[in-house]
Each structure stands twice: as C-alpha cells, then as structure tokens.
Amino acid sequence: MSDLTVAERDRVLAKSALFNPPEATLPDGRRELVGLTREELVAELATLGEKPFRAKQLWHWIYHQGVTDFARMTSIAGPLRERLAERFVVGRPTAAEVQTSADETRKFLFRYRDGQEVETVYIPDRHADRGAVCISTQVGCTLSCRFCHTGTQKLVRNLGAAEIVGQFMAARDSYGEWPSPKDDQPRLLSTIVVMGMGEPLYNYENTAKALRIIMDGEGIGLSRRRITLSTSGVVPMMDRCGEELGVNLAVSLHAVTDELRNEIVPLNRKYPIAELLDACRRYPGASNARRITFEYVMLRGVNDSEAEARELVRLLAGLPAKINLIPFNPWPGSPYLTSTHEQTAKFAAILNDAGYSSPIRRPRGRDISAACGQLKTESERGRKAVA
Ligand code: SAH
Ligand code: SF4
C-alpha cells in the first residue's frame, strides 16, 4: 500500500472517530457487556476479582446461549450472578417496530438508549429454512447517493460495536434461534449482509469489532464466508477490511463512467472508478470461488442502456466478479424510476453472455415499506403526527 493510501486511511479513521457513540454505560452506572472483546470482558471481570475462565463462561452464555438474564446463567454461582447483575447488563436494542411482509421479510426498527433508531431486515431465502440479516452501521450516512433514502438523512452518529452485534442478536431473539446452531446445522439466520443504513467503511473500527465477535467460533460462530460487507467505495479502507476480516466484499458500483458515478455516488469524486477497481483487484481472498459482488441499481434511462452493460463487462475484465442487478426501490420524492423488466433483462443478458452471473434481485418486503431508511422516516413522521 502506498504512503499516500496509508495517510488517507488514517485521515478516514480519525474523522470517523468523531462520530462515535457515548460509552456503553447505563445512567445507573452499569456497564453493557455485549460488544466487548474477549480481552475487554476478562478485564471487566478482573475488576470484580474474577479469573479469566469466568469471561469464557459469560461469553458462552451471552453469545452461544443468547441469555440476557444473569439469574439464568446457572454454571455461575448464585452470589456472583447477583454481583454481576449489580455491575453489568446484557442488553438488546428495543424493537420500536417490527413488520413482517407477505413474503416473510421482517423489518425491525431498533431503538438505542439515546433514542436513535436504525433498521435491520431479515430476508428469508427462497427455501425459507435460512436467510440473511441485513444490518446497519450508522444512524444516517455522510454520503448522499442520489437514489438512496438513507442518503437524505444526515449522519447522526456511528453505531458502536454493541449496537451492531445487538441488531443480529435481537433478530435472533425474534426467531427464537438460540442456542447458536453448530456451523453444519441449518439455521434461519444463516448469513449477514452489512448493507443497511450507513457506510460500514466509514465506521470501520466498530464494524470490525462487531464482526469479530459475530465470527468467534465459541459464540455466534458465523464464518467470514457467510458475511458480506457492502461499500460505496471507501478505497483506503478496503485493504484493511480484506486483510483483517476476510469477509466477502460487495461494491456499490451503479455506473460505468466517472461522469455519471460522480453524480449518483458522489464519493466517486474522491475515489474514482479506476482506483476503486484497483482496490478490488488487490482485495485479499477474492478468487473465482469467492467473487466480489458488484451492485448495480437499475435506474430507468439513467444507467441501464445496453452500451453501459457492455462497458461494465469491459471494466470488470479479469476480476472475479458477480453482478447483482437491483431494481430501484422508489421512495417519496425520489428522482428516479426503476428500469423496465424488459430493459433489465436485456442488460442482464449481455452480462450473462460475457460469463457473469448476474441475478436480478427480487424486490422484497415492498408491502411493508420499500427502500432502506424509509421505515425510520415513517416512524418519525408518525410520531410527529401524534405529537
Ligand atoms: N453504504 C453501503 C451499504 C449500504 S447501502 C453501500 O452504499 O454499499 C446497500 C445497497 O443498497 C447499496 O448497493 C445501495 O446502493 C443500495 N440502495 C440504496 N438505496 C436503494 C434504493 N432506493 N433502491 C435500490 N437499492 C438501493
Ligand atoms: Fe450511504 Fe450507501 Fe446510501 Fe450511499 S447508498 S447514501 S453510501 S447508505
């Protein structure tokens, strides 16, 4: 990596830290245990004079069994359970709203202790015995992609590691999927896509901490192959993500020229297409068996011509890639229309002919509230109407 990239990465990290949430401590002084690393958990227990094996036991109760009440942690002696309950909590975000769509998609609006809210969505697989949890990493987003509803909400703050892990754990509560299934057992919440609100690589430290907890084999135990992180293209952070986390990468490309991408994904002005694709070429772990997903939202008459499909093929030459064509989800006031089925099919055919897998993502959960970021706005509007 060049010195310039390292300097840019440090600048991104320093800026991101300004948006971190307050300490995960309750008004009564109790400390949140969810979101601590194993080392941090050992250190917390040491303040009670407890040895490291207690942290191992607690980890098991919290992340394997999914237990939130110390009284139920029966391998720990009663008096210690009481002391733990005085000092600590094992919390969850509050589900301010839960909506289940006719197609079984379930959307949660989670509220944190300071009242901030984000969305988490469970998307069942066609076979319905497994599915993906789409988690958020920030309240709002600093990047204003023109087609994205979250982009119209200014960034309020980053989510902390506890708040990111908490979305997955609360979704699991909702499906009763505790204790954590073994890796070879079927599970409903079988994959994670970091594709909710916010830009995960602008909240790298907290996202990385949360994903490490989720990947820990003695707890939730989802392997890195079951996790996909989506970025709009924060180039200086992509190497670290690959080296340190090794999760699957998805890149929100959406346009094949800098001119158009500058307009619809303004981050492109900082990190243009050529630089972004270079970062993809060197993404550790990318191979034909583990392709990079390129997301391409289909905007009618904007980016969906056959010439653009051919240019996309040319741009991605040599990259282990698959392309996810996403029908645009309109939201009130959005400046675009979804491409027609016919045009999307023509676009997909060109990609398929060039050997790319290019599934057209089925619109999910349309009847509960279409675009990401919308449930939150509806909830705020509802509250204002009541007030
Ligand atoms: N900030 C990250 C991850 C969150 S957005 C990123 O941009 O990749 C997740 C995906 O949803 C992105 O590919 C984004 O472009 C897409 N998306 C956002 N708004 C959309 C909409 N209204 N319709 C369809 N896809 C949308
Ligand atoms: Fe932010 Fe992603 Fe939406 Fe762009 S698409 S505004 S990066 S959440």
Written description of the protein model:
It contains twelve helices and 13 strands. Helix 5 (161-175) packs across helix 6 (204-215). The strands form three sheets. A nine-stranded mixed sheet has the order 3-4-5-6-9-10-11-12-13, sandwiched between helices. Strands 1-2 form a two-stranded parallel sheet. The protein is α/β, with parallel strands linked by helices and 387 residues long. 36% of the residues lie in helices and 16% in strands. Helix 6 links the parallel strand 9 and strand 10 (227-231). The chain folds into two domains: 3-89, Orthogonal Bundle (DNA polymerase, domain 1); 94-368, TIM Barrel. The longest helix is centred in the first third of the chain and has 15 residues, at 3-17. The protein binds S-adenosyl-L-homocysteine (SAH) and iron/sulfur cluster. Iron/sulfur cluster (SF4) binds at residues 141, 143-145, 148, 150-151, 197-199, 232, 252. S-adenosyl-L-homocysteine binds next to strand 10 and strand 12. Its EC number is 2.1.1.192. S-adenosyl-L-methionine binds at residues 198-199, 230, 252-254, 329. [4Fe-4S] cluster binds at residues 141, 145, 148. Residues 127-367 form the Radical SAM core domain. It is an enzyme of class 2 (transferase).
Give a topology summary:
Layout: H1 3-17, E1 31-32, H2 38-46, H3 52-65, H4 78-87, E2 88-89, E3 94-100, E4 106-111, E5 117-124, E6 131-134, E7 138-139, E8 157-158, H5 161-175, E9 189-194, H6 204-215, E10 227-231, H7 235-245, E11 248-252, H8 258-264, H9 273-281, E12 292-298, H10 306-315, E13 321-327, H11 341-353, H12 374-386
Parallel strand pairs: 1-2, 6-9, 9-10, 10-11, 11-12, 12-13
Antiparallel strand pairs: 3-4, 4-5, 5-6, 7-8
Bound molecules: S-adenosyl-L-homocysteine (SAH) and iron/sulfur cluster (SF4).
